[in-house]
Amino acid sequence: MKDFKSDFPIFKNNPWLVFLDNAASVQKPSYVIEGIKHFLENDYANIHRWAYNLSERSEIFFEESKKIIKEFILAKYSSEINFTYNSTYAMNLLTLSLKRSGKLKKWDKVLVSIVEHHANIVPWLILKEEIWIEIDYINVKADYSLDLNDLKKKLTPDVKLVSLTYASNVTGQVFDLIWASKIIREKNPNIIFVVDWSQAVPNFQVDVVALDCDFMVITGHKVMAETGIWVLYGKKELLKELTPWVGWWWAINWVRKQEYMPSGLPHRFEPGTPNIVWAVSFLRALEYIRSIWWYDTIVKNEEKLIKYVLEKYSKLENRVNIIGSKTWESRIWVFTFEIPGINSSDVAEYMAENNICVRAGQHCTEPLMDMCNLKSTFRMSLYLYNTKEDIDKFFSVLEEYLIKNNK
Ligand SMILES: Cc1ncc(COP(=O)(O)O)c(C=O)c1O
Questions:
Q1: Atom of ligand 1 nearest to the CA of 23
Q2: pTM
């Protein structure tokens, strides 16, 4: 297996670093860092309505980024790719545009799962406050997989939209969204199906056509692009029907003193000057992944390391609880733990003293934490540069901490 660490300057500059906070954001390879630098030094200018060559070149890179994302998710058209700033923004752009277009009305029901990140709960709660939609939660089973029978039961005629994560940022469980999609479509083909792909983008590719989702949010920074660049994918026919919640200069066809006309796709949902440089970082990140055989390398490495973490964990099972499945199938390399009677922030701080980066808290999933009756947990999460040695270090420091605290 290639030593991926050498592609990432952060590890050269911090040789002691054991970076296990990848579910929050991943490190960037030289290919992306140098790619951004090269773009800024050679090709950068504002885009759209250019008359000069530099701006044209800049726009070509921006459009190339959309093309590679389209290829990445097997979408039909580049115009279905809309750049936004983060997942929370993308979700709000969607929810408020749905409201503005009259696609959701009073007493319409929205289903989400109990494990969702707040980014896929709060925007719906805002609509609940504003137009009185209803929200219900689909349960998970004992292994934290999506309870498809509960989904079937809750798909009542008033359900207009279902919004689900592809993988949980706490349990690491991958939801069977292919089945969920079939169930939803069989019940009512007009239900809007939204997928939050934020946490699973680093782990596997998605075919949006096979999945038959109407909208999807896609992260940049968890897949080696910079922060501040996300995508809202939407089926072209549906995007055309939506009135964007935001509208400024570039998203406008014409303006009169008392009227304006929004523009068509793809710019309708990208008002103002877009984040051109970070769009180029997305292009370079996906080129880097393509250079390592798309996801084949990542998936093989992931399976091996998941098994290794679970094997290590099995030796601590009576002292530390895992919030997630103990089998390697249908999960990504995100692992959340709690030690009864111990504040998880203390564990994370002890790890930090030993140069290990993990995250403590509720991970923006309070409904899930309430269901599990947990106040705080600590999470270690891997990416393609992590090794068995990183995992060994994590478990040996954890063991040390348990002994010191008589656990
Ligand atoms: C599943 C999931 N959805 C949404 C988000 C929110 O992303 P952002 O903070 O970029 O808005 C995250 C962040 O970790 C996540 O894991």
A1: 14
A2: 0.95
Contact by Cβ (8 Å): 202, 298: yes
Q: What is the distance between the alpha carbons of residues 31 and 225, in angstroms, rounded to a whole number?
A: 11
Q: What is the pLDDT of residues 299-348, one digit of tens each?
A: 888 999 999 999 999 999 889 999 999 999 999 999 999 999 999 999 99
Helix axes 388-404, 296-314, angle to 10 degrees: 20
> Is residue 249 helix, strand or coil?
helix
Q: Per the residue annotation, which of 213, 357, 364, 372 is the catalytic one? A: 364
Is-contact 111 138, C-beta < 8 A? Answer: yes
**58 closest CA partner among 36, 82, 86:** 36
Tokens of 68: 């590679």
Type of residue at 177: L
Burial 228-258 (b: 16+ CB within 10 A, else e): bbbbbbbbeeebeebebbbbeebbeeeeeee
Cα–Cα distance for residue pair 125/32, rounded to 1 Å: 37
- 203 CB near ligand 1 (under 6 Å): no
**From CA 209, how far away is CA 194, in angstroms rounded?**
13
- Amino acid identity of residue 2, one-letter, is K
Measure the CA–CA gap between 213 and 76, rounded to whole angstroms: 13
Q: Which residues, in sequence order, are CB contacts of 187 under 8 Å at separation 6+?
A: 152, 155
DSSP letters, 362-407, are: -TT-HHHHHHTT-S-EEEEE--TT--HHHHHHHHHHHHHHHHHTT-
Per the CB < 8 A criterion, the answer to whether 59 and 273 are in contact is: no
Q: Which protein residue has the closest C-alpha to ligand 1 atom 14?
A: 24
In this prediction, residue 103 carries a pLDDT of 96
Task: Residue 331: name the closest of 163, 203, 182 by CA.
Answer: 203
Q: What is the number of alpha carbons within 13 Å of residue 407 lying toward its C-beta? A: 20
Residue type, 243: T
Q: Quick check: is 364 catalytic?
A: yes
Cα–Cα distance, 206 to 198 (Å, whole number):
12
How distant, in Å, are the alpha carbons of 160, 212, 239 from that of 192?
6, 10, 12
